[in-house]
Specification:
It is a single chain. By secondary structure, the chain is α+β, with helices and mostly antiparallel strands. It is about 15% helix and about 40% strand. The chain has 6 helices and 19 strands. The strands form 4 sheets. Strands 1, 2, 3, 4, 7, 10, 11, 12, 13 and 14 form a 10-stranded mixed sheet that branches. A 5-stranded mixed sheet has the order 15-17-18-19-16. A two-stranded antiparallel sheet has the order 5-6. It is elongated, with a radius of gyration of 21 Å.
Length: about 260
């Protein structure tokens, strides 16, 4: 039971709810996920089973794609329908100016970012003032698909760590009525199937592969660095005839396993 499930999360469920459901179905197997979705949001959630929980950070670093429907002329304290709504009547022009490339944004106070060791949303719910630092993200695509009165739909492709709620709020004024994650790296929500477990080697197909044999494969399986003329610093997926051995990074002339799958 080592691999990744592609789950199409419904609205009203938390990412933790989905993980708990999978954990009940696969008792005794370690379960996690790679990237939280807000309860009101829907779409692709990568649920990790067994040794796939070790690759969480590599999956979380992948770019994302979203579709969102925005309510214009109003603001929300949370950036979504669950917050305190203020109708301002101020709407962005049509078409609006949609930023791409490097974008500076301030994540919402109601977010899972840790401030002083505590999740920002917990402080915000207690009424505390939350100063979430700005960050630089990369937006490769930001398009308006349609606009009807005070509502508009957008498609967004962005780097990991981007808050779509902030992108919409920064249009002045608007908040997300609906939010759907359609893609994470090579994974598409159209392929979601809670019954199909994607194995480690297939799940890590986006990494450059280095095939090993014999003693070199055995050494890598024990965490020992191996010589290789592969280009770049990695990370690389080391494999042999039995599948994934480890994720490795370059250390001098060696590829050093940093995440192993054989022990």
């Amino acid at each position: 039971m080592d691999g990744v499930l592609l789950i199409d999360k419904p609205a009203g469920k938390t990412s933790h709810d989905v993980v708990a459901m999978v954990r009940r179905a696969h008792r005794g197997v370690k379960v996690g996920h790679a990237g939280t979705l807000d309860p009101f949001a829907t779409g692709l959630l990568l649920v990790l089973l067994g040794r796939a929980t070790r690759i969480q950070r590599y999956l979380m670093a992948l770019p994302k794609e979203y579709e969102t429907v925005a309510q214009l002329g109003a603001t929300s304290t949370t950036g979504d329908p669950e917050g305190e709504i203020t109708h301002t009547g101020r709407v962005p022009p049509d078409p609006p100016e949609l930023p791409t490339g490097e974008v500076r944004q301030r994540p919402p106070a109601y977010s899972a970012i840790k401030i002083g060791g505590e999740r920002a949303y917990k402080k915000a719910r207690r009424g505390e003032e939350v100063d979430v630092p700005e960050r630089v993200v990369h937006v490769s695509r930001f398009e308006q698909r349609w606009r009807e009165g005070d509502r508009a739909a957008f498609v967004i492709a962005c780097s990991s760590g981007t808050y779509v709620r902030s992108l919409i709020a920064d249009l002045h004024d608007g908040y997300c009525l609906e939010l759907r994650r359609t893609r994470i790296g090579p994974f598409d929500v159209a392929d979601a199937d809670p019954e199909r477990l994607i194995g480690l080697q297939e799940a890590l197909a986006f990494l450059p592969h280095v095939a090993l044999e014999g003693e070199r494969a055995k050494a890598a399986g024990h965490g020992v660095g191996v010589e290789c003329d592969a280009d770049g610093d990695g990370p690389f997926l080391l494999t042999d005839a039995d599948g994934a051995i480890a994720i490795a990074e370059r250390q001098g002339d060696l590829l050093k396993p940093v995440v192993g799958f054989r022990a």
